[in-house]
Amino acid sequence: MPQHILVTGPSRSGKSEWAERLAEKLEQPVIYVATALENPDDAEWQQRIEQHRRRRPSHWQTLSVSYDLCATIEQAKPPHCLLIDSLGTWVANGLEQDNETWQGITTRLLKSTQQASVDLIFVAEETGWGVVPAYPLGRLFRDRLGHLIRQLGAIANTTYLVTGGHVLNLSLLGEPLTNIDYD
């Protein structure tokens, strides 16, 4: 039965590195699903993308999937493992969607995840630990990502929190919430 793993935590905590280590341990061909939109005019952003590329093993396949993550999951076949990095940039790429359309997209993503025939490792940024953003688009991003992480955490086999350079297996240490309120 395929594993669904969620790796979450703050920026620069080591989430991606932990997810990469988990993918290597599965001993399957890895497809790295990069959700970032490249921007040649933003040298610092391109440097971040390049840092991720250099760290990945050369035998891993890379797919750039900025929008249709659901189709990528639905089309994946064993014995592959998909490492999806990251949900934060994927959510940011879809911020122009109205709430009804976004709800349909996330519903499809959750269904695709539950029906996936391959192992999935999701990397997601925790953004809701600080101040509530003072502008509407920032609040929309934070809320959409927070809801998605919570929903994926509810269906993941294992959820890890990476913070302060340490990894915590929340599935062993925590107790899942049974009722999910999306308001």
Concise description?
By secondary structure, the protein is of the alpha/beta class. 43% of the residues lie in helices and 20% in strands.
Explain the overall architecture.
The chain is α/β, with parallel strands linked by helices and 183 residues long. The protein has one domain: Rossmann fold (3-Layer(aba) Sandwich). It is 43% helix and 20% strand. A 7-stranded mixed sheet has the order 3-2-4-5-1-6-7, with helices on both faces. The longest helix is centred in the last third of the chain and has 20 residues. The model has no long low-confidence stretch (mean pLDDT 93). GO terms for molecular function: adenosylcobinamide kinase activity; ATP binding; cobinamide phosphate guanylyltransferase activity; GTP binding. Its EC number is 2.7.1.156, 2.7.7.62. It is an enzyme of class 2 (transferase).
Low-confidence stretches: none
Q: Please state the second-level CATH architecture.
A: 3-Layer(aba) Sandwich
Terminal Cα span: 32 Å
Q: What is the number of helices?
A: 7
Give the strand order of the largest sheet, numbering strands 1, 2, ... along the chain: 3-2-4-5-1-6-7
Question: Could you report the average pLDDT, rounded to the nearest whole number?
Answer: 93
Q: Fraction of residues in helices?
A: 40-55%
Instruction: Indicate the radius of gyration in whole angstroms.
Output: 16 Å
Write down the secondary-structure element order: EHEHEHEHHEHEEH
Number of strands: 7
What overall geometry do the principal axes of the alpha carbons give? globular
In this structure, how is the largest beta sheet organized? Answer: 7 strands, mixed
- Determine the structural class based on helices, strands and strand pairing: alpha/beta
Percentage of β-strand residues: 15-25%
When the domains are counted, the total is 1
CATH class: Alpha Beta
At the third CATH level, what is the topology name? Rossmann fold
